[in-house]
Amino acid sequence: MNAPTRILDTMTELHRFLFCSAHAGHGQWLSAALRDEGVVLQEAGRPAQLQQRIGDLDPQVVLLDFSGEPSGHADDTADGSFAGAIELAQMLKRVAPKLPLVAVGSMVRADGMKAAIRAGVHDFIDMHSTHEEALDVIRRVIDQTPPPSAVAPQRHGRFVVLLGARIGVGCSTLAAHLSQLGQEMVVGAHPEKATRAAKAPANKDDKFDASLLGHVALLDLGLPSGDGLLYLNTQSQFSFAEAVQNLRRFDETLVHTAVSHTPSGLAVLPLPLDLGDMRSVAAADALALTDRLRAFFDLIVADLGGFSNPAFVASLVRAADEVWLVVDQSVGAIVSLASMLRDLEEKSVERHHLQLVLNRYDPRYGMAADQIAKRFEIPLLATLPDRPLAMLSATNQGKLILDTARSDPYVRALQPLVERLLSAQHAGAAAQRHSSGWLGRFMGKH
Question: What angle do CA 173, 178, 179 make, to 5 degrees?
Answer without folding.
Answer: 105
